[in-house]
Design a protein that fits this description.
CATH architecture of the largest domain: Alpha-Beta Horseshoe
CATH class of the largest domain: Alpha Beta
Number of domains: 2
Helix content: 25-40%
Strand order of the largest sheet: 2-1-3-4-5-6-7
Bound molecules: cobalamin
CATH superfamily of the largest domain: tm_1862 like domain
Distance between the termini: 48 Å
Number of strands: 15
Shape: globular
Structural class: alpha/beta
Largest sheet: 7 strands, mixed
Strand content: 15-25%
CATH topology of the largest domain: pyruvate-formate lyase- activating enzyme
Number of helices: 17
């Protein structure tokens, strides 16, 4: 590590209802440290009191440059900080990466005064950006994977050569305090006092039109080495006191063979952890060994993206699941005491009162233990957003793009307010449809504490 190098600040801004360690920044911190740089990770979602110190140090010229991450709903928070930094330290290079910058890079560069944005995975571009800053150059658009505005305000970028996928390295867990995330932990449901997120694969082979996850990794799956993944779990358990893992992959079992290889290594090490998959797994990807391995690694709940009971809507949005086969698959999990959680969206194109009430009836009739219902949000980078923008619809008040927010535009015959009522109606009907569901919900509330749920309730109420 070259002594005179100033540290690089990596920043997560915003005040989300629930929180989770910024794995993206922690992976990039590992990459930069391997290049001999010093990094400082600032997560203001859990340590807001650190913002003052961060701005003071920036004004004093303490940082080589600042890297931000974020997705749509976080952009107003990032912009607020960028404007402050521009005033305090005009020459400090500012780079933004992540889902939003990858989905709408030019719009993002015209929304706030950044030096550059990263489009896609950051591992390689972040190294080149650090070198260019050190060499005092500023033609950031020449770096493959970055985009910037040229001297006349023109949008400029350099595409990535060939296969842009460098291995995803273990997050730099030393850079954060895992205990800071426990009180408002994302996802609410938990079984152990200390929980940490984990990424084993990036990307998803599917192309559901309402999802923007393909903006960064495209429709492919990038795997981490299974042994490397379980080494990380062992470190979290033995060095950081973690007892529960949240696998945050977009589609952990999209490649069942790979997922089983991770679970086999995990079971072999007998780490006494439990885990769950809050981001959802593919409902049709299973076999008997998969179930045995889930039990051997203490998976206690899985989530499925089911979205709607309407076959027409499912095919319209390109979600190729056989909704008639799902109730039996749910029973395969529930009969093994692995709870199931269904994700539903109200307001997909083609939706009407009939399709919503059919979906509610369907969900109540299944043996699902829990549901999460949201209103369709046109996330930048999703096909629904891109098509709508092409048709001239204005969808860029990014601070409104969180799940429960009924006041965004509608893509079906119901108004946003009507959709919100139906969303609430869905929760009430489902959780009052069977006594065991009321008991299950109160058990989770008791277990996880009210904070995460209050956070979500606050979000529902203000919109
Ligand atoms: C973890 C996670 C969360 C965590 C927060 C994580 C955090 N602290 O940042 C929690 C649980 C809190 C969360 C909450 C929400 N989330 Co969320 N979340 C995710 C999830 C599952 C994984 C993100 C992640 O860490 N991936 C792993 C890392 C390695 O990948 P990455 O982030 O893409 O990073 C790579 C590149 O993007 C790039 N990069 C990223 N940052 C940077 C920075 C720099 C400087 C550079 C150079 C490069 C770079 O390099 C990285 C390594 O290659 C994604 C799914 C997804 N596919 O991204 C959804 C996702 C990002 N979430 C989403 C949403 C909508 C939400 C909510 C708004 C939902 C709600 N409740 O309303 C909330 C609210 C958040 C808020 N602030 O208000 C959407 C975003 C849609 C959009 N286009 O904006 C996603 C895509 C899910 C989906 N499929 O729709 N979320």
């Amino acid at each position: 590590m070259r002594k005179n190098r100033k540290p690089i600040a990596l920043v997560l801004a915003g005040n989300p209802a629930t929180v989770s360690p910024p794995i993206n920044l922690l992976c990039l911190s590992t990459v930069l440290k391997l290049e001999g740089h010093k990094t400082e990770v600032y997560d203001f979602t859990v340590r807001p009191e650190k913002e003052g110190e961060f701005l003071h140090r920036a004004a004093k010229g303490a940082f080589s440059w600042v890297g931000f991450t974020g997705f749509a709903v976080m952009m107003p928070g990032v912009r607020r900080l960028v404007l402050k930094l521009r005033a305090l330290a005009p020459a400090l290079p500012l780079l933004l990466g992540g889902m939003h910058a990858s989905a709408v890079p030019e719009k993002t560069l015209r929304y706030m005064p950044l030096d550059a944005v990263c489009v896609g995975p950051g591992e390689e571009p972040v190294k080149a950006f650090a070198r260019m800053v050190e060499d005092g150059q500023r033609n950031y658009w020449e770096i493959p994977g970055l985009a910037a505005l040229g001297p006349r305000g023109e949008y400029r970028t350099t595409p990535r050569p060939g296969n842009p996928w460098s291995p995803i390295l273990r997050p730099d867990w030393e850079a954060v305090r895992i205990r800071d995330y426990q009180a408002r932990l994302a996802g609410g449901i938990r079984r152990r006092p200390v929980v940490a997120p984990l990424i084993t694969t990036m990307g998803c082979p599917n192309a559901c039109s309402f999802c923007s996850a393909n903006s960064v990794f495209g429709r492919r799956l990038v795997h981490r080495d299974p042994v490397e993944v379980v080494d990380e779990i062992e470190y979290l358990v033995k060095e950081r006191g973690v007892g529960e893992i949240q696998i945050l992959d977009d589609n952990f079992n999209a490649d069942l063979g790979y997922a089983k290889s991770v679970l086999r290594e995990w079971a072999r090490r007998d780490l006494r952890t439990v885990f769950r998959t809050p981001s959802g797994i593919w409902v049709h990807s299973y076999d008997s060994e998969w179930f045995d391995l889930l039990k051997a690694t203490n998976c206690y709940i899985v989530a499925f993206g089911l979205e709607t009971f309407s076959k027409d809507i499912l095919s319209n949005v390109g979600k190729h699941i056989n909704i008639d086969a799902v109730p039996d698959i749910i029973n395969m999990y529930e009969s093994r005491k692995i709870l199931t959680h269904g994700y539903f969206i109200v307001g997909l194109p083609g939706e009407n009162y009939k399709t919503i009430s059919n979906t509610i009836k369907y969900a109540c009739k299944t043996n699902l233990s829990h549901i999460h219902t949201s209103i369709l949000i046109p996330y930048p980078g999703s096909k629904i957003y891109n098509d709508a923008v092409k048709e001239g619809r204005l969808l860029d008040d990014w601070d409104k793009l969180y799940l429960y927010n009924g006041s965004v535009s509608s893509f079906c015959e119901l108004t946003p307010e009507q959709l919100k009522k139906e969303m609430l109606n869905f929760y009430i009907k489902f959780y009052t449809s069977r006594p065991k569901r009321v008991i299950a919900l109160s058990y989770e509330l008791k277990n996880a504490g009210l904070m995460p749920f209050l956070g979500m309730a606050k979000r529902v109420s203000i919109s």
